[in-house]
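Final report, results section. Input specification for complex C-07:
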Amino acid sequence: MSTPSGTPPRAPSGTSPDAPPGPLPSEPPGAPPGAPSRRSRGVPARVARHPLGLVSALLLTAILLAVAFAPALSPQPPDVSSLRDAFGGPAAGHPLGFDSAGRDILSRLLHGGRNTLGGAALALAVALALGVPAGLLAGYYGGWFDSAASWVVNMIMALPAMVVLLASRAILGPTVWVLMVVLGFLVAPAFFRLVRGIVAAVRGELYVDAARVSGLSDTRIVARHILIVVRAPIIIQVALVSGIAIGLQAGLEFLGIGSGDAPTWGAMLNEAFKNIQRAPSLLLWPGLALGLTSGALVLLAAALRDVLEDRGTHRRPPRRPSRRAAAVARAAQPHEPRAALLSVRDLAVAYPERQVVHGVDLDVHAGEIVGLVGESGSGKTQTAFAILGILPETGRIAGGSVTIDGQEIVGLPERRHRALRGNVVAYVPQEPMSNLDPAFTIGSQLVEPIRHKLGLSRAEARERALDLLARVEIADPERAFRSYPHEISGGMAQRVLIAGAMSCDPKLLIADEPTTALDVRVQAEVLGLLRRLQRERDLGVLLVTHNLGVVADLCDRVAVMSEGRIVETGTAEQVLHAPEHPYTRRLIGAVLEVP
Amino acid sequence: MAAFVARRTAAGAFLVLVISFLSYTLLSIPDLDVGRQLLGQNAAQELVDAKNAELGLDRPALVQYLDWLAHAVRGDLGTSWFTSEDVLQAIANRLPVTLSLMVGVTLLTAVVSFLLGVWAGVRRGAVDRFVQIFSVIGYALPNFLVTLVLVLVFAVHLRWFPAIGYVGLGESFPGWLSTIALPVTALSVGAVAGVAQQVRSSVIEVLRQDYVRTLRARGLPPSRIVFRHVLRNASAPALAVLGMQFVGLLGGAVLVEQIFGLPGIGSMTVTYTTRGDIPIIMALVMLTVIGVIAINLVVDILIGWLNPKGRIA
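Structure output:
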């Protein structure tokens, strides 16, 4: 680690609270699943299949072996010097040449590794011995021990390791081995926090409760259920902390804290640095040894993380411009006269893995509410996103034609499609809370698109936003305007989102399950509001829903969707009272069964 | 807000008190016989005892600590046992050097890692892989090693910057810049690696949020969404990591100041800890701890500002 603190940077707070720290290549949570589970093989075998893991594991093994057999591999003892050879280049029997005192570099490098790596191993052992049991206890039992230990850990983490080590030297003397024990104390929080976090989370799991109820002793529960969960993260953490410990050990030796003439990589670097003007090449070998060891450890940790946490290498498919679909669009056969406001013909939406929408036809006229009905996963939302042009990164329109207000949007450049959003077609999302930016006030989130799309001044936009809030029946618009999303209720948030959708006078509203996340009373109010706004402004509405009650209440026409296809269309009355398609009948039957 | 700052300051003061007590008592354990060290091996025992009594070292450690504390809270950190310098003055002389370093590193790290992280998170692809590789390398290499390589390339070979020495900001701005450039770069490499990685993964995470899709549906251009909404939401975790890096930077400064011969707090730590000069060591430990507590407080306030939900009333 490049910053020699005792504590590696905390894991991103957005990810799991005490995941192993450090900038390892990894997808944040929410990454598309699809990494196949490969739990069947042993860890070494799986690391061996990971190219980076294999290289770094082999490199580390080679370094460890070379260091372990240093006496056998060294051309001569590390302290033998012959001033005649000082700064000498490679010679027979001395492949790496000589240092400033005429000592054999290879011999010093091999023996130095013993001190450097040994010191780091000592620190690691102390950290593990302290951090893991303390973390287990604190996480499992909680209580006063947890509070006390966490306080101490936070205190230790506030101390820069290098400064503490130097201060310790004043107390304990300049023996690096002793200082490595201190370093062990300083990096123990890395293990404590990791283990405590995981154990505290696992402790609440049902299977641990079940084990407790079934009468297993705490010791056995910890041994059988909990150690297994913390094992993998600890292994990864060991690799990371080793790198930090080696860096700090070498740093101390570099400062000359070391024990006299004993060879270490840090001391060799120090000596090389003193002669940097005369023989800069002396930096090469100890620098390489230190750099390669640290690098291999971090790469190994990354590989271990991939393997142990089953994160497959997620490949991003090349993004094909949806423009290519334009050709297909023109070839689409019109089935019936196309509606002026929204007309979808033969729409196909595809992800790299599979196609999710197949040949969908839809029409929405001005002043009409069309329900798009189907169970979850039927492709309703994907159809809506395709029309709006807000498909996720990997999704694309694979074929068909969509016209909004007479304009073909399949193959339309993003900039021109964007120009339609907001003031021609607008969107009311499903989950009110997650669709408001938590960092901005309601007011500023309403004002921003108004100013951007309609070019109004700040004051005009503010006035318009307040007017909109009043129109969606919010009692105190001024107050809502000033609030942050977390300060308002779900029903109010949905009104705000409807206000946002209406803010630039769209002609077409696409509402994706606008009431699903709300309680029943609020649902009715929001539906009433949508109906009122639709009548007032002669809006066309595409209402995506799985709720047939809502359809019966609100919709003029209905399209029923199943497995990415429209299976039935007709007036709401037709479809609800005389369904033709078996799927529609099942859908209606399912509603009736539920009291 | 004021209550939050007050509570955190009180907790911080308590922490400082605990650490000062632990440090002082631990530092008092070894029998350093300062009087003997000062007067030499041949001095008469009576003179040595008199010297120790003069420094107050004949009293029990606890009494010495309370005495130190009583003076410290009044801003009197005493004088160095070995050089008779006023401790506060010695630190004041060296603080600007380390502060230049810290401020420079923090600014450089923040700017570079936000640029790299946002770029990688939004563009993905080749840019992303480059940032990932840079992060792993920057994270893996001990920063004094990075420093040595920078010295070798830019000071010894190319001779663009001086290898050693410091020119005060007050004396000459270009001189200051050229002496501070390499140390700041050296310290920033590791910090950028950590923070850029965090910015990248936060940006990717925020880009997947529902409200980003809704903002797109409102017809806002991507640049506006990224630089206003995504950046603000992604900043909080990145700031937390930047705060953590700061603790490491204080340690890194020790090595870097030593390598570049900068007369700052870091090189002072190396020099004075060798001799067990308790007044100076105590002052350095207190300075570091207070610095870390202050930075954490500032980071938490900033995070609260960025994230209204977590904001403390």
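Chain A touches chain B through 93 residues (CB under 8 Å). Chain A is about 50% helix and 10% strand. This concludes the modelling results for the funded period.
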